Amino acid sequence: MPDRETWATRLGFIAASIGSAVGLGNIWRFPFQTAENGGSAFLVVYLVAVLLIGLPALLAEFVIGRRANLNAIDAFDRLDRPNWKVVGAIGVLAGFWTLAYYSVVGGWVIRYVYGSATGAYFGGPEAYFDAIAEGPEAIALHFLFIATSAAIVAFGIEDGIERATKLMVPSIILLMVGLAAYAATLPGVGEGYAFFLSPDLSTIAANAGEVVPAAVGQALFSLSLGFSIMITYASYLGEDDNLALDGVSIAAFNTFVGVLAGFVVFPLLFAQGVEVGDAGTNAVFVSVASALSGLPFGRVLGVVFFGTVLIAALSSAISLLEAVTAYVVDNYRFGRVQTAVGIGTALFLAGVPSALSLDWLDWFDTVAGSLLLPLAVFGVVFFVGWVMTDEAIAEVRQGASGSGTLSVLWLWTVRTVVLLAVGGTVAVSLLELRAPPL
Ligand code: PHE
Fold it and tell me: For residue 366, what are the domain limits?
C-alpha cells in the first residue's frame, strides 16, 4: 500500500471537522428547532446533549480512526475485530446515501445564489421554490455541486480538503458574524431575538418525550456522527494530537454557528413580518427568501446569505464524499482522482430521483436519518465502550496531558449514558421509517 496521506497541520484537521459539522443542519434546522421547543431553555437541553452525548460519541469515532489509521470499514479489521466492519460499512453507506440527496439541496443553494443576484425569487418565493426544486435544472445543479465536491476531494487530504476548509470555515464564521451584525440593526431585532431565545420551560416540560430525543438527534447529526466521517478524518491524524481538546473546539464552533444562524434568521423574518414556518427546506428557501425580497439591498444580502449556506453545505459534502473515497483508495489500485470521479458519478445517478421529486428526497432523508445514522452511531458507541475498552482509553490519552481520570469517566459515559441515549434514539427513529414513494 502506498504511504497514506496525513493532515499537514492540526488546524487543518480541526477546520475540516468543523467544516463537516457546520452545514445545513445548523442553518435550517437548529435555529427553528430551538425557537419552537422552548428557546434558551431548549438551548440548555441541547448543550447538555452535546456535552454528555455528542462530544463523547465524537471522541469514540476519533479513537477508532486514529488508532487504526485506516478508512472506517477496514479500521475494525486493523483493530482485530473484523466482524465489526459492518458498523463502518453502515456509516459509509449512510454517507453515500446522504450525499446523493444533500447534493440536490446544494444545487438549490447554487440556484439561490444567482437567483438572489438577479432577484429572480423576489416576486414569489414559494412559487419559485416549487418551480426550481424538481426537474432538469435541479439535476444540472446537483451535478455541478457534486462535481465541485469531487474536485476538492480529488486533490487529496492536504492539498484538497485541508486547503479548502481552512479557507471555507473562517469565511463561514466571518460572513455569519457580518450577517448577524447587519441583522442586529433591523427593526425586528428585539422581537426576533425574543422569539429565538425567550426561555419557555413549559414547552419542554409538556413535551419532554419529544424534545429531549430531538435535541440528542440534532446533536449527533450536527456533529456529523454516524457517517464514518469523523473516523475517516481522524485516521489521517498523528499520535500527538489531543483528541479531547480538538473535539471540544469542534463542538463549540458548531454550536456557535447554529446560534449565530438564529441571530441572522429571526431578525430578518421579523423585520419583514414573514411567517416563521417550519424547520427544513421551507425555512431558508421560502421564509428567509421572502424576508430578503423585501429588504433594501436584498439582492446583495441574498448573495451573501446563500453564498454562506453554499460554503457550509460544500464543506459538509466533501466530508461525506471523503468517507466513501477513503475506503476505495485504501483498498483498490485506483488513484484518488479516478476514485473521486467514479464515486461522484455514482452519487450523481443516485441523486437523480431526489432531483426529480421532493417525495424521493424526503424518503432518502428519512432512511438516512432514521435508520442508517442511528444504527451506525449505536454500533460505534457500543464498540468503543464495550469491545475496544482499554485500547480506547489508551488512545484517548495519547497526546493528552493530565491524569487518566477523565478518560475513564469518558469511557463510562460512553458505556452507559451515551449508549442508552443513542439506543433510545434508534428505537424512536425506527418508528419513522416508511416505504419508498413508488
Ligand atoms: N453536520 C451537518 C449539518 O449539521 C450535516 C452533515 C452530516 C453533513 C453528515 C455531512 C455529514 O448540517
Answer: 10-430
